[in-house]
Amino acid sequence: MSRLSEIKKGIVQKFELSPEAVGCLRLTIIDNTNVYIENHRGIAEYTQKKVGINGDAFVIVISGGALQLERFGRDNVAISGDIRSVQYENLR
Amino acid sequence: MRLWKFITGYVMIRVEGLSLEKFLNIAAQSGITVYDVQRVSYTVLRAVISAHGYRKIRRIVPEKYRITAEKKAGVPFGFIRLSGRKVLLIGLACLCVAVFVASFFVWDVRVTGIEKREAIALTKEMQSLGVFVGAFKGGVDIKEIETRLMVEHDEFAWANLRFKGVVAEIEVVLAEPPPEMVDETRPCDIVATKDALIESIMALKGRAAVAKGQTVREGDVLISGFIWDEGLTRILVAARGEVIGSVWYKAQVSAPMFNETRVPTGRTQTQRVIAIGADTAAVDAGCEFEEYDTEVIDEYDVVGLFLPVKVITLKHSEVKLRLEPADLQKLMVDLEERAFYDAQGLVPDNAEVVGHETVSEEKDGNLVVAVYVQTRENIGKVVYLEE
Fold first, then answer.
1. What is the pLDDT of residues B165-208, one digit of tens each?
2. Which of B59, B82, B172, B196 is the most buried (most CB within 10 A)?
3. What is the rounded average pLDDT of the residues A55-61?
């Protein structure tokens, strides 16, 4: 775990905050059709079969078919399509 | 969201270049949200961005990305396209102004809460109060009109006027009629309002003039306010009391006891007529039968004329009238039901129905059924004595 992540974790525990308040990534999955990710750190990869979204200490890889970025903004991203798997990769 | 995008305007873009993820990250970091992103191929991407975002992204994105606008849509771009058509814009502006101005006037007056005929009369009355189609809404004093309606109409318990858009809505609630006020200081009699058999009499003030079991006619004195015993002083009082009478309400209906049937004899005759619109004129001789049924067997238009002219062929079938006795039992039940319904319609609201009787007779080939509905009701009313 990186030094930054440790500090964040400490703040969250100390002040009993919601983790996303200090920039932790929040992932919401609806059925196998929609994924909403908040507090992301940019997009690492995007094809119709695979979307990689950067977090602080990992990459979330969403695999499936006909994947589409419904919305891609500074803080959040909405992905739709036929989602088969959601994986954490490159955990540091 | 889609409506908002339409209002603010959006651009469907095509981005060509290598590492399109980087393009998306640059856009997001610059605060430009990208919608409906589709990776067409490794080097091509399609997306939708706002009109403002499109202007911004062209400045900040490196030249290695080729951005082309495939479609510009939404209200701002619509206005830009319309800006060349000045007459249309002026027309649109005039329409908006006309609609805005029209919204200051009344376009319809609706009355609710009363019967249609009374509503029409009230609508006419409202014209004199300044509420009519075409009236300026700002010139209508709602409070004053409501007050005047309440003052001038005793039958209204409540009246409310409000404007719903361009419609003036008048909502009326009818009042229950107040009970008849009796002057306690004026001498009066209680007299019969209708012919009845006295069921009970309770004279609270005055002297009972009739007894239980006695029949009375309309106008007969039931409780007298004039009390005079021989050798004593004459006293005039305001008679009070309750007189319950048994009243009969009669309704009578009749129907023929024989049904007329038309039996075809087999003889027929055809006749052609010319029809111009709703008028007809016979071409052949008229029908020679005394009683007959007619049907149209052929009809064709006379073409080439401006008028709608048709030639119609009629078939007249001779019939003989035959009287057949009706099902008397069924007819009796039907007539009794109708008569009972009619008789009940005569019964006042405050009367208690205690029974009914049916009388039937045959008269001139008709079955006559009369139903008498018996009620118990207060039959007294106050009639003031002449001083």
1. 889 999 999 888 777 777 778 889 999 999 999 999 998 888 89
2. B196
3. 87
**A72 to B27: CB separation less than 8 angstroms, yes or no:** yes
B-contacting residues of A 26-45, CB under 8 Å? 42-45
Q: Cβ separation of B34 and A69 shorter than 8 Å?
A: yes
> B259: helix, coil or strand?
strand
Shortest Cα–Cα distance, B81 to chain A (Å): 28
pTM above 0.90, yes or no: no
Residue B33, domain CATH: 3.30.70.2280
Name residue, tokens 């589709």. Answer: B38
Residue of A nearest to B37 (CA): A69
Which ipTM did the prediction report? 0.83
Residues in chain B closer than 8 A to A66 (CB atoms)? none
A48 has a chain B CB within 8 A of its CB: yes
- B33/A74 Cβ within 8 A: yes
Q: Does residue B90 form part of some domain?
A: no
Give the strand pairing for B279-282 and B258-276: antiparallel
Which pLDDT score, from 0 to 100, does residue A6 have? Answer: 76
Residues of B in contact with A72 (CB under 8 A): 24, 27-28, 33-35, 37
Q: What is the pLDDT of residues A8-25, one digit of tens each?
A: 778 878 887 777 776 788
pLDDT digits (tens, 9 = 90+) for B135-151: 998 888 899 999 998 88
Where in chain A are the domains? 25-89
The tokens describing B160, both together, are: 């409310």
Q: State the total domains in chain B.
A: 5
Residue B89 tokens read as 């814009």
Instruction: Give the residue carrying structure tokens 């109708």.
Output: B338
Q: How many residues does chain B have?
A: 387
Q: Give me the residues of chain B with pLDDT under 50, please.
A: none
d(CA B69, CA B203): 100
Domain limits for position B31: 2-80
CB of A58 within 8 Å of a chain B CB? The answer is no
Class of domain A25-89: mainly beta
